[in-house]
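Bug #77: duplicate submission created two jobs. Keeping one. Sequence:
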Amino acid sequence: MPSKRTFAVVASIAAFLGTTPLPADEASLQSEVDELKKVVAELKQELRAVSNLSAIQGSKIVEQETKLAETQAQQAIQVRDTFKTAGNEPVTASDLESVREQQNDQLDRRLRVRNGVGVVLTGSSIVRYTDSATGSRGFTIPSATFGFTGALRSDPAEEGDVRYGLSLNYAGATNTTRLQDAFVNVGVKSLQKKELEPAYTLGFQLGQQAVFFGNDNVGGEELRPTITGAAYLSAFNTRDIGLVASGGINWKYDSAATSDQSFVPTIAYTFAAFNGNGVGATNVQDDNDGKAYLGKLVYTPFNKYNSFFQGLKVGASRLQWTSGTGAAAIDRELNGVQFEWLKLPLLITAEYVWGKDDPVGTGATVDKDEFLATVFWRPGKLPDFEPLVRFERFNTNKNLAENGRRDITTVGFNYYFWQKDPIVRRTYDTVKTERVIKVQANYRFIEDETLAATAPNPNQLVTQVVLAF
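Kept job's structure:
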């Protein structure tokens, strides 16, 4: 609802318009014009305050107050735009009309951004320094991404949500630039302003995109908790071309959710079919008849603000695919269970992933698994200085001695020293891009049973600066 101050400003305009006599000289005219500008400026501040309301309330109030201000300002212009003063250009209707158009354009842009319309530029860049006893020491740019996203319809709640995304990525390891994302997303039933707690939502995304297995492949660089991701990410193609169906069931308000999406589903689901051979210069087309199939469910049982277990999430994922052709084909699968709990000042995540590679022809089946857990210290809901500890055990092949075990303990921190529109997040949840400059420092204690006894200590110090928008 408009504030009392808004009504006072509108009332002052009405009182001003009720003054029928024309000004007697230039000074009085200029004084009244200055007064009108001041009133319009105050009204503009009130409209900005109103724009912080919800999309449906704010847009309606802005529209009503803007129309009222336009009508009354036009009446003032009609009374005064015919008066010319000696030695100065007259104040005409077109002059004030130009000012009003600029204000309306600013209001329109804010509403368009709020409703998701238009183009939003996104990107990230990383500058990394690595110091390792194995000889890798120095600065690198491992990744840089630039792209844009947007919506095709002006009112998603009325017309259905249709969004798109396109981005390019520079990979420093191979010194190549290639397409990273190219997709269109159609919201059959979206979480929009008309229904905040729907029984279900459903959307389809077609094109090249991330394969959302587990947790570590979900967030962008601005949200990634550690510099080096989980080892299981090397077991499959983290980006592929395919069709994804995703949504949620039984949406509820959750004060522990991200700040730009305060409603979360009790059950979130993702089902997808991909080519299975990833993307890149050598994988433009699928090389076999098999496809990669993904299924993922995340359960959020507690959403009441006074629940001790608020912020708890558990999930399960499965990915299966075939790589190669003929006798060289290998049937592969990964399964995972995830746990996440934001209980300030601690944020705890854990994940167990197991899988196997089963050759179609000759060769032994390779069984492998991985467990990782991360504990963050966060005294406030917004991340600032965030110390963390992660433990990771990856059994690369259970047919080997000691299961090919590789233990990594990471000690470090994330320091967000600049944030614009920060997101109150758990670990990976985000709906909009977080504009941030982040410093990360990780020291990795590595115990690798697959290395020779005489191999140098593989421990690493890794630091990097992440710029994301």
